[in-house]
Amino acid sequence: MLNVLIIKISSMGDLIHTLPALTDAKQALGEITFDWVAAPAFAEIPRWHTAVNHVIACPFRQWKKRYFQAWRQGEIKKFTHALREKHYDLIIDAQSALKSALISKIAHGKNAGMDKNSVCEFGAQYFYKNSYFVEKNQHALTRTRQLFAHALNYSLPSSTPDFGIDVAKLPTLMMTLPKNFIVIIPNTTWPTKHWLDAHWQQLMMKINHAGFSVVIPWGNPTEKQRAEMLKNAGENVTVLPKISLSECASLLMHAKAAVCVDTGLGHLAAALQTPAIHLYGPTDPQKIGAYGEQQRHLQSTIPCAQKCKRTCYSTKIPSPQAACLSQITPENVWEALQNRLSRVTRLAADT
To answer: What does each C-alpha distance from 7 to 19, 37, 129, 268 come to in angstroms?
Structure first.
């Protein structure tokens, strides 16, 4: 039995994009099990995969704000002890950043990652025992699958990515939901990745008029406040109570479809094969977009798209609202959503 440690402590979407690589390895090698170092907020995600045995929480973001306090209180020592408690046959840094490379070096076992032409942060390659070239100009999910194939020495399958989520591990929702509902995911991190509130409101009205209810999850008080504000736009709109990521997964599995900005829950919808429309402005869906069947990406074609990050510079006055994302209209989204729902209905009728 091969025991492998994965280092991936970044965003929710990044963790979801890593899951198919575990499925590939399991199918190719059989006797293999994984431990995973992940941020506490996303520690549920690795546990969904059938090949993951144990998750080690690494609150790196919190430590950045209070490093000396974390050191004095023994938090870092406790994490290091957990990291070195087991000897691993291989440690794979699936993030290729300096912090993740350092963690892979501290862990007990031979480590591997991307080479100098492939890493996300230059310098990370110096921490690895073995490093491999992985072409940068491709989707992050594909890059991770290729890294695992190199590091574990198996042929990369040509099959569609399998996220390996064991739905039996997902909880039963202890709430009453509408019969036919569409999940709206309007919240994300960067201001430039937000769609206009007025656009969301018009879209929800169209969804309601077509006979569907709208359900909106949220993750923090700011997101809840925005969800409550958007709720006023429609008649059949439900703002959920606070639920866990695993409960969000259960929610998305029961949804007719979802409409999402570039956010972690959008990637989760794709992994669960929930039909979804994804709205992209300053980020490139060809490299980090939601990956899966029944997914549709909408993106503006204006020249400045993808050139801004947290601030839009398309006008003389920098703005947190991306002009490229604003160009996607509620009519564009509703047409794409109708097409996706019709396609799912046709596929269901053929089976």
So the answer is: 12, 5, 15, 20
Q: Which ranges in the chain are annotated with CATH 3.40.50.2000?
A: 2-165, 170-350
Predicted TM-score (pTM) of this structure: 0.91
Contacts of 35 (CB under 8 A, 6+ apart): 3, 4, 5, 6, 52, 53, 54, 55, 56, 86, 88
CATH 3.50.30.10 holds for 170-350: no
Q: Do 40 and 187 meet the contact criterion of CB atoms below 8 Å apart?
A: no
Cα–Cα distance for residue pair 112/92, rounded to 1 Å: 5
Pairing of strands 32-38, 181-185: unpaired
What number of residues does the chain have? Answer: 351
Quick one: CATH architecture of 2-165?
3-Layer(aba) Sandwich (3.40)
Instruction: Give residue-wise pLDDT tens across range 141-161.
Output: 999 999 999 999 999 999 999
